[in-house]
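Case study 2.
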Amino acid sequence: MPEPLKPYNPLDRVELGRSVERALLARPLSPLPPAASFPGAGLYAIYYLGSLDLYRLIAPPARKAGEIPIYVGRASAPGARQGALGLQSTTNEPALFTRLRQHAKSVQLAEEHSVKHGEPGLRLEDFRCRYLVADDIWVPLAEALLIGHYRPVWNVLIDGFGNHDPGRGRTTQARSLWDMLHPGRAWAAQRPEAQKSPHQLRYEVNAHLSRFRIPDLDAVPVIDDEVQEAMDQEEMVFDLEK
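Prediction:
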């Protein structure tokens, strides 16, 4: 006998996350960063459209522009973890715009480094983003689905952008994998090198992207160790915003 169908529950946590995920993916592609500041916190996805061989498998012409994110993340409202928002659904501060601008600055510094050294590298003009101002309650659910569905290479292999300068008191902290692969940020260059070399990282990126398959967004993704570690990394970034 076939198993009885589970009744559809529009308030199921996965359904709520899925609705936010799809709302983000329906947004138009914008420059990175967007042209004008805007208030609010929420969710975003970043896409690479350039010709760098390292990411050729997720960029045109291999894929449509905006088909596969290279990174997804969220920007929280200031004070969200402490409940300082009260009953507000988001913030009037430009938290999401500020996060996208930070990422754009990191890419720009990597571009300047590659130009200075005459090497192929990232170019800011080759990036686009989608962003969605959303209620803080639902954003982590959608982020988990996005990471599980797409396994973006900068989430699951390159530990994100490693955005924050650890400060003078933590000079022994290793450089982030992103900075190993795309050098340019001066403070990161002062940190010890990570255990993985750029050569090894490029090999792993190619292997990861070679395994990629377009996900079924109707299916609940498998949250394996790779995805869980990426989600934990995003949670660490969230904690630094407190």
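The CA atoms of residues 171 and 239 lie 20 Å apart.
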